């Protein structure tokens, strides 16, 4: 039964990873950039939310509305100010500038908020304390269900948005061939900026859930980036539902690893990731990034 | 026969300046070797730290600037170089040979990971290298024999007196830096050097003209791992104490990117210049803590966007200066084609023949 519980907790954790990863997947899908600041942006979103909650004592779920709008703006500005120029400068430059940005964000958070860990768990209300006990070793927490539901909703919403809406179609067209997209009247700069805005907002949403579920600290960004990336690669680049599956596999691997020894949690995730790279022919992964 | 001869162009590798400079660099290494005899221990330790930065910058540049491989996980090999030394020393190997073995160990481990990581390109390669570094951090943190998370010191070095120890470490670091730079220089001047730059510029095009892309990347990856291993072993010898979270810290990559971007990505001299600059900045501003790191990040971003060839690349471009000749220069391009320029005449002749 402990293993059933571990798998179940892993699925919930996996929902969180999928939520964290979908923005990384979206920016890669549309702009062919791996945003190395993705994890740090998620943590930045969590800290902005924490700061507002600390000042106003409002519920974090209410504060999500302004902070997600702010983070959408951050993503928009990021694209216009940094990524757009980086993309023009060559294929290596976006990696270097986003890595530089991650270092800047991490250290600004460290300078402003000190290295202390912060949590939104206390202010989130009953949802963090409610749980249903199925048996002695197996309980279902309301927060876990909420995170999983939000993850599925966000991924499903994004998927629908890309397939059904005008802006979504414009995004896919721009991703395939931005020059041709421009020929049929799509403003590709605007499309890129909005895609970056959505991606950063989803990262911030994940960051806030991290702070509600556990704690965040200024140095948490790189770890979150690694988890998000592992989820994306395990699931297969380019597919949002793949990202969900990848997140779930990563989450279950970590909770099962933790069953053996709590310190093995992250290592188990890393090993599953390395095994996936080893087994899959490099061609599939490499070709995806090379083409389009 | 050299086909260029008939065009009035000639290909040149060495110039007067580069001959003088390369000779001067060799002489400098010899002079530096005598430094411990008349310099204070403090200076010797600081110069050792500078050599470590030069190794890191040059090796990172070898990967990114020549192989197009942006690794953010080379700290894995810094950690392996350091912890490998501790492990060998604990198993009875004298400290300095232990460092040598640890450097080889870093190279050996990189062979295994090269098969995994080089399947990936671009940003996927970047984060995957980071995952490997994170995995090694966890493994070392779990090993009680290596001090687990709290860190460990190289007590075996105490068998030497403090001043001797500092000098030996200095010589080891100087020697390692010199050897790595010479190997890199020879590598870049060889046929492989041209292949590597072709890979960086366009992998598919390079492959299509018969460049062995994977082999080139693998050589660079393993070579860089050996260099980072040396930097790690030297860091341990210079500071005597290491912790998994600091020796495997991604901050090393931040330093590497700063040095290479400011100095000049894809130039031989640039990273050395960048390392000297970072060394001076660390000396002056490291007390500022996080704001100093923020400054490094901002400067690196600005260089990437506004001056992507860095300080040295810009100087090289503007003045046509190359101190260490790793490339080729074509002479005579400015001149108008001479009267005896064969291919042109031939072209004219065919054209004339077609007209009549």
Task: Kindly describe this structure.
- The complex is a heterodimer of chains A (292) and B (356).
- Chain A has 292 residues and is mainly α.
- In chain A, 78% of the residues lie in helices and 2% in strands.
- Chain A has helices at residues 2-31, 38-56, 60-89, 93-113, 142-164, 166-176, 178-183, 188-213, 221-235, 240-260, 264-279, 282-290; strands at residues 131-133, 139-141.
- Chain A has a two-stranded antiparallel ribbon with strand order 1-2.
- The longest helix of chain A is centred in the first third of the chain and has 30 residues, at 2-31.
- Chain A starts with a helix and ends with a helix.
- Chain B has helices at residues 16-33, 35-38, 41-67, 75-90, 95-117, 122-142, 162-189, 191-201, 203-208, 213-239, 244-247, 251-263, 270-285, 290-306, 310-319, 342-355; strands at residues 10-12, 152-153, 241-242, 329-331.
- In chain B, the strands form two sheets. A two-stranded antiparallel sheet of chain B has the order 1-4. A two-stranded antiparallel sheet of chain B has the order 2-3.
- Residues 335-356 of chain B have low confidence and may be disordered.
- The interface between A and B is large, with 50 and 46 residues.
Short overview:
Chain A is mainly α and 292 residues long. Chain A has twelve helices and two strands, in the order ααααββαααααααα. Chain A is 78% helix and 2% strand.
């Amino acid at each position: 039964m402990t293993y059933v519980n571990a798998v179940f907790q892993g699925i919930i954790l996996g929902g969180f990873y999928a939520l964290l990863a979908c923005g990384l997947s979206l920016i890669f899908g549309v702009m062919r950039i791996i945003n190395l600041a993705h994890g740090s942006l998620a943590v930045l979103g969590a800290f902005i939310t924490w700061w507002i909650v600390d000042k106003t004592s409002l519920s974090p779920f209410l504060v999500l509305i302004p902070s997600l709008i702010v983070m959408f703006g951050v993503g928009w500005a990021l694209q216009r100010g940094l990524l757009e120029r980086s993309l023009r400068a060559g294929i290596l430059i976006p990696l270097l500038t986003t890595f530089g940005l991650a270092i800047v964000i991490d250290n600004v958070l460290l300078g402003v908020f000190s290295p202390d860990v912060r949590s939104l768990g206390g202010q989130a209300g009953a949802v963090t304390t409610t749980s249903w006990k199925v048996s002695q070793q197996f309980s279902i927490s309301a927060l876990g269900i909420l995170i999983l539901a939000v993850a599925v909703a966000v991924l499903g919403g994004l998927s629908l948005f890309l397939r059904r809406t005008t802006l979504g179609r414009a995004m896919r067209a721009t991703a395939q061939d931005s020059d041709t997209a421009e020929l049929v009247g799509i403003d590709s700069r605007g499309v890129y900026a909005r895609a970056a805005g959505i991606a950063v907002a989803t990262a911030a949403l994940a960051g806030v859930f991290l702070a509600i579920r556990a704690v965040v600290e200024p140095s948490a960004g790189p770890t979150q980036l690694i988890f998000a990336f592992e989820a994306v690669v395990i699931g297969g680049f380019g597919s949002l539902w793949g990202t969900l599956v990848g997140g779930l596999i990563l989450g279950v691997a970590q909770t099962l690893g933790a069953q053996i020894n709590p310190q093995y949690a992250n290592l188990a995730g890393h090993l599953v990731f390395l095994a996936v790279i080893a087994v899959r022919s490099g061609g599939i992964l490499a070709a995806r990034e090379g083409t389009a | 026969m050299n086909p260029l001869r008939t065009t009035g162009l000639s290909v040149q590798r060495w110039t007067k300046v580069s001959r003088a400079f390369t000779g001067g660099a060799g002489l400098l290494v010899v002079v530096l070797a005598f430094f411990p005899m008349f310099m204070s221990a403090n200076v010797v330790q600081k110069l050792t730290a500078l050599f470590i930065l030069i190794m890191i910058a040059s090796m990172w540049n070898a990967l990114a600037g020549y192989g197009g491989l942006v690794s953010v996980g080379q700290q894995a090999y810094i950690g392996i170089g350091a912890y490998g030394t501790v492990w060998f020393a604990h198993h009875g190997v004298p400290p300095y040979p232990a460092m040598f073995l640890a450097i080889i160990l870093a190279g050996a481990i990189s062979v295994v990971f090269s098969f995994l990581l080089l399947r990936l390109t671009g940003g996927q390669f970047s984060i995957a290298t980071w995952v490997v570094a994170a995995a090694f951090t966890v493994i070392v943190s779990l090993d009680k024999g290596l001090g687990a998370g709290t860190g460990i010191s190289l007590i075996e070095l105490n068998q030497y007196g403090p001043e001797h120890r500092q000098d030996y470490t200095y010589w080891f670091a100087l020697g390692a830096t010199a050897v790595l730079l010479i190997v890199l220089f020879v590598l870049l001047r060889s046929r492989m050097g041209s292949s590597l730059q072709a890979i960086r510029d366009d992998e598919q095009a390079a492959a299509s003209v018969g460049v062995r892309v994977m082999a080139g990347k693998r050589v660079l990856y393993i070579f860089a791992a050996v260099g980072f291993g040396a930097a790690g072993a030297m860091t341990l010898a210079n500071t005597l104490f290491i912790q998994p979270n600091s020796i495997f810290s991604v901050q090393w990559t931040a330093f590497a990117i700063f040095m290479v971007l400011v100095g000049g990505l894809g130039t031989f001299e640039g990273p050395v210049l960048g390392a000297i600059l970072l060394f001076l900045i660390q000396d002056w501003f490291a007390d500022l803590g996080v704001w100093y790191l923020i400054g490094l990040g901002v400067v690196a971003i600005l260089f990437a966007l506004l001056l992507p060839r860095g300080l040295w690349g810009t100087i090289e471009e503007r003045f046509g200066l190359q101190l260490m000749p790793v490339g080729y220069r074509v002479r005579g391009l400015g001149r108008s084609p001479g009267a005896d320029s064969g291919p042109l005449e031939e072209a004219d002749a065919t054209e004339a023949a077609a007209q009549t």
